[in-house]
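Lab notes, practical 5.
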Amino acid sequence: MRNHFDRLLNLEQTDKALPLIYPLLISLGAGALFSLALAPFYWWWLAILSPALLYACLRQRSAKHAFFIGWAYGLGLWFVGAFWLYTSIHVYGDTHAALSVLMIFLMALAMGLFSALQTWLYRRFFPETPLTFAPLWVFFEWAKTWVFTGFPWLFAGYAFTERWLDAYAPLFGVFSVSFVVILLACALVEIIRGRWFWSIPSVILLLGAWGAAQLEFVSEKAEKPLSVSLIQGNIPQDLKWLTEYQDKTLIIYENLSKSEWGRDLIVWPESSIPMFQTDIQPFLLNMELQAKRTGTAWVTGIPYFDVNQSIQNNNPMFYNSIMASGSQSQGLYKKQRLVPFGEYIPLHGLLSWVLPALQNDPSMSSFSRGPEQQSALMIKQHPLAAAICYEVAYPNLTRRNAQNSDFLVTVSNDAWFTGTAGPWQHLQMVQMRAKENGRWFIRATNTGVTAFIDHKGHIVKQAPQDVATVLRGDLPAMQGHTWYSRLSDWPILIFSGLLLLLGWFYRPRQIDVSFKSRR
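Output from the prediction step:
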């Protein structure tokens, strides 16, 4: 039986391994190329080529070598793929350019350990086959959503948003798309090596994507679409929190909104009101009265000071929040996943030197984390599920918030990353969340990319970046549930776990168990 499975999984090792320096350099370059598969470049084929090169580089390697090959891949992946952080650290954080690059390099080294551990486990415990490499990849992408609060970025599945394979997203989520992408990448390597058997599962997966695209999980409700206006204020990040600029910010948003009163919903972006609600009660009351007079719901991002909780805890409780008011509307959503060095500073006393210009920024006031169970915003009898900025990168968090909603809304301030790939990668994630949950996504941002995204993840309308503007749309409420919205990530995680269990049980005797290659 064991020999049969060894032959089926192509476990014979007959190729001569290259010197270690070659796979290290190839993997470093492959990781660096990966981000070009994502927005705004959309060279999707690199999402197959990049992991395919890593898979090939691991051939016949000891677990020790595999660790460093994976680390090289992860270093290239994160240093290039997340280099958009440089703008926020150097330009707005007032950190020296060299130190900013060093910080990104250290972040890439740390995040690269995910890939290093993944490849070490692959060569330490499992046979060399796509059926173990792909599920390990899925588990480590999933781990990035929760280890040390998570940094869920640069997933392989995002490269195929609006591209064929994303049809798996409403069934089993973005991790299932990643699974298919990585399996196809590894199968390509096996086919090139003459293992033609792998063309069969490849064709099946492609046909499966076509079949999944024919399925309809949700439908429009038989009622008038919601007329929505998104206000993009284009407030410069270096001025946004200055006390002397706060009144001008409010005037900009008021003026842009004047022509929109009377529509069903007006949405202002994240922290568009740069003051706590306790400091600006007259303004909020006037806006609410204006909304009620014109029959409009008004949703805005605002820092929220919870007075009652602060008294109870004997500690100030600040939240990054979304508030709904106006005609037939109410609700408050408090952000659950906070951005390290963006909304709070870990080990504040020890690390205050990291971003010196941000220490007195109100947006850095050590925001508190919102509770997990929160009600949706109510907008004219429509439940509106909310996500603030970075939260939309978390698939299961968005899925949980989206339960029993008619629409999804996310507000963001990507001015921190103006002119980089960051805002576009962020938008791509919103598209995937819309596809996973079968709901229209309303995305209001300060500088872009403000957009309406339909329930299939397609961008229907988007505003130009870095201009003050209004984006209007009429959105249908959706009903029904995708498989993913019901089942979460469990199906793909369980399936991946079973494949790994099978691979471990039928692993060949020559599998590396001592950091030394066995023959």
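Observations recorded by the TA: The CA atoms of residues 437 and 485 lie 5 Å apart. The chain is about 45% helix and 15% strand.
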